[in-house]
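Input record (one chain):
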Amino acid sequence: MRLQQVVKDERRPREFDPREYISTWTEKDLLHGKIVDAWVIIFRTRGCYWARSSGCSMCGYVNDVAQEVSPADIGHQLDVVLKKHQGQPLVKVYTSGNFFDDHEVSLDVRERILTELGDRCDKVIVETLAHLLRRDQLEHALRFVDELEIALGLESTNENVLRYAVNKVWGLNEHARAATVAREAGATVKTYLLIKPPFLTEREAIEDAVRSGHEADPHSDTVSFNPVNVQSRTIVDRLFRRGEYRPPWLWSVVEVLERTRDLKAHVKSHPTAGGLVRGAHNCGTCDRRVVNAIEEFSLGLRADFGDLSCACQEVWRAYGETQPFMMTSADPLAVLEA
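The corresponding structure, as predicted from the sequence alone:
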């Protein structure tokens, strides 16, 4: 069975109120070199068109979308969420899909979102697939905000990893084109890269992330390394439940960040579910300390990780050596404990 169909078969669409946004919260981030409060908004839309037809192996966001959402529904979500703004100068707008997909977020709705948020915040960040980005859309969007950043999920620059691990068919060429369009219009570019897509060993995942970071650097203002976390009803979840996938070690995230400090782009990572079994984690004893160090690095509060150590680093190193020997990307510890 083709991976595209296997990914789709894992989906379990549910019914949601299309007038209710998914979530909103505040987190720390950098704006013009200063640490500020960033306002995160996740609107409920019909979701990513790629996820509806097949989707990425690690992405479960499609399980939180509504089946059909009208422009009026999204307008109502905006009205409700705007009341929660507390002066944050930076806002990140997510739709569990693509902000510049006209079928997901119509032109009128995009204009209203950007107008309302542009009036309240100094910088707006939106997310979309690279091949959907058009110059006319960007030029129109920049009429309503002071600063706009386009976040693009590249995931990896290796075409085999994209096709056979992530289940994506758009790579560095499409990303570079979109980055050029964004920069020429006056926007900045954030590139998302994965750490440890399924079917890669721990060492393969580290090398893929490091190589991808360097190859994406010329087309990025920020490179954000996203350690894969196990989201429900995904291929990653299926493998995880069978003991055939373990989220990356936090030590792997640290190594990737250390080896990409030479990038011109700002390098960061915010491990979702960091320290939990379904997110990047170590032994449990050092997890919180390492997650905090990664956050500090991302905010420019530390330059390296030389002060970190734990006995589990030896286990991590042995883990990396064992997987190739066993000729599998499965979790060696899970196999031994089975």
